[in-house]
UniProtKB/TrEMBL annotation:
<keyword id="KW-1003">Cell membrane</keyword>
<comment type="similarity">
    <text>Belongs to the glycosyltransferase 28 family. MurG subfamily.</text>
</comment>
<dbReference type="Pfam" id="PF03033">
    <property type="entry name" value="Glyco_transf_28"/>
</dbReference>
<keyword id="KW-0131">Cell cycle</keyword>
<dbReference type="Pfam" id="PF04101">
    <property type="entry name" value="Glyco_tran_28_C"/>
</dbReference>
<keyword id="KW-0472">Membrane</keyword>
<feature type="domain" description="Glycosyl transferase family 28 C-terminal">
    <location>
        <begin position="215"/>
        <end position="382"/>
    </location>
</feature>
<dbReference type="InterPro" id="IPR007235">
    <property type="entry name" value="Glyco_trans_28_C"/>
</dbReference>
<keyword id="KW-0328">Glycosyltransferase</keyword>
<comment type="pathway">
    <text>Cell wall biogenesis; peptidoglycan biosynthesis.</text>
</comment>
<feature type="binding site">
    <location>
        <begin position="21"/>
        <end position="23"/>
    </location>
    <ligand>
        <name>UDP-N-acetyl-alpha-D-glucosamine</name>
    </ligand>
</feature>
<feature type="binding site">
    <location>
        <position position="189"/>
    </location>
    <ligand>
        <name>UDP-N-acetyl-alpha-D-glucosamine</name>
    </ligand>
</feature>
<dbReference type="GO" id="GO:0071555">
    <property type="term" value="P:cell wall organization"/>
</dbReference>
<dbReference type="GO" id="GO:0005886">
    <property type="term" value="C:plasma membrane"/>
</dbReference>
<dbReference type="GO" id="GO:0009252">
    <property type="term" value="P:peptidoglycan biosynthetic process"/>
</dbReference>
<feature type="binding site">
    <location>
        <position position="324"/>
    </location>
    <ligand>
        <name>UDP-N-acetyl-alpha-D-glucosamine</name>
    </ligand>
</feature>
<dbReference type="InterPro" id="IPR006009">
    <property type="entry name" value="GlcNAc_MurG"/>
</dbReference>
Amino acid sequence: MNSTHDRSPRNLRLIVTGGGTGGHTYPALTAVNALRARLESTGHSLEVLWVGAADSLEQRVATTNGIAFEAVATGKIRRSKNPIKMVSPANVKDMTNVPRGVAQARSLVSDFAPDVVLATGGYVAVPVGLAARMCRRPLVVHEQTVRLGLANKVLARAGAQIAVSAQSSVALLPEGSQGTAVVTGNPVRPEVLTGQPQRAAEGLGFTGHDPELPTVYVTGGAQGSAQINNNVRDILPWLLTRANVVHQCGANNVDALRESAQGLDPALAQRYHLTAFVGPELPDVLALADVVISRSGAGTIAELTALGKAAVFIPLASSAGNEQAHNARHLQESGAAVALLGEVNPANLQAAVEPLLADPATRDAIASQARSKGMPDAAERLVDVLLTAAN
Ligand SMILES: CC(=O)N[C@H]1[C@@H](OP(=O)(O)OP(=O)(O)OC[C@H]2O[C@@H](n3ccc(=O)[nH]c3=O)[C@H](O)[C@@H]2O)O[C@H](CO)[C@@H](O)[C@@H]1O
């Protein structure tokens, strides 16, 4: 790292790229906002251009947050053990998109002339990151997961400065980039850390919430998870005798779950709140939750550890490099979570949740271990890396 003198703020121009999922998009937005706040606190300004895929989550997030956005062509290479399948029509089309995206990104980078480029992963980060290197602009890559994603691996080899979310990532970096890597943690949206439990039930319209009972928040990520939904559905008659349940299930699953909830005893059903997606109420819902049943994507883990929540993780088995299982195991090994790493069924989900509801001391012990793993200052650390790279 350079000296703190090198990080002194000045007016800056930033290109940010990354997206595809919330896991790549929200850390980018959080870093932009933190960098802007740091610069403005010293009377300086930040000009930002977000370069992403057209009609994407990152486009919606950038534009709703008043950040200028430009789209470039991207190509997702579908990996397969069978080399014949690699030459699929979809892959061939996507491969031709990559050079087109690099050319588009190169012209955007050269016109905008950023002081620094931040890439947070996802396929779109590849053309933009490569263009940054071609135009000799400093490139910082932020990785949310323990193992580098494919896009970030390509950019690490192209000479990016790497910021990682966990110390254990450093040993897994490509040769040559380990020495310069910085552990920042995974930036968490600041509003997530300042929720108010007493606002949650009102914000959700959860009129039957019983304040005498603990609350379980179930989340399968933005799309929802059929595996989590089905197992939770099957233990609901038991769960609702002990807790309120807020269940975020994804848009595709909400109708079927609503129908099956009609079979619940009405006295229990009033403690159940089902929703496709939790939007601006998310911080309050997290503040209210005593126990969380969740996938173990990097973004969710960063939030739950920063807050110190007792969680039961059900990893997505098909996540890249099985990283969700790795994340969950890592926390379970230090008593910072409960992880269901093999087959998941209603019986073992109930067995995992039961001690957390029965004994507040058990869940407090897990919550406090989780909090010790959290890095609530990750955005500020990433800002330090960006300011150093820009100088
Ligand atoms: C399917 C897939 O590819 N998953 C990957 C994706 O995760 P993905 O983006 O699906 O999940 P993450 O846990 O990283 O982030 C989800 C984000 O959405 C928010 N949220 C979720 C539900 C909701 O109703 N409201 C809401 O705001 C969560 O609070 C969190 O901030 O990128 C992550 C980071 O690279 C990886 O670790 C995951 O393995």
